[in-house]
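Report of the visiting student (M.T.), summer placement. My assignment was to run the structure pipeline on a short list of targets and document each run. The first record concerns Protein-L-isoaspartate O-methyltransferase.
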Amino acid sequence: MKDTFKHKGLRQQLVAVLKNKGITNTAVLAAIGKIPRHLFMDSSFLDHAYQDKAFPIAANQTISQPYTVAFQTELMQVKRGDKVLEIGTGSGYQTAVLCELGAKVYSIERQQELFKITSRFLPKLGYRAKSLIFGDGYKGMKEEAPFKSIIVTAGAPFVPNPLLAQLEIGGRLVIPVGENVQTMTLFVRTGQKDFEKTEFGEFRFVPLLEDKN
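After the run finished, the structure tokens were exported:
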């Protein structure tokens, strides 16, 4: 698991690309500049690790485009010590970004293969989620609610009600909603039954599947 000066240089170039695309949160940019994304990918993709692109990983899933990771994370407005829920651990790259920001991360993955790989791999890099579970993301993690923010890293055909219910007042849910193309959507919980909804344009994600695999 090498992280060379070349890799570090490529990361700084990636950070510059994200700045040019409009990412302004310095903590998010610093996290992307620090985390060795190439280690989260199949070794044959090393040349592509620091391009602003999504790539395939195990179980027919993808590691999201760095811009998408940065965009979603920026919308969460994470502060150190925040309790956050991630739906779709995937490769663990987004998890690492949240850990780097000082969040207490609870994460759910429904692909058994990915769950096994990632739960072993993340601690090796020094990223320890509070809880990493194999389960159905549509249900959230009721026993740990409420959360300051919730991020969904797969395209959801609809907004799962349990996720809205598990936000604290003032909490933020960032979720890509749609079938083939998704609209990045932010819900801010303003009251017991009240939510403010804002949409941020189109993105493409692998689908969020119900039940476990």
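The helical segments are 5-20, 26-34, 66-76, 93-100, 112-124, 161-165. The radius of gyration is 16 Å. I thank the supervising group for their guidance throughout the placement.
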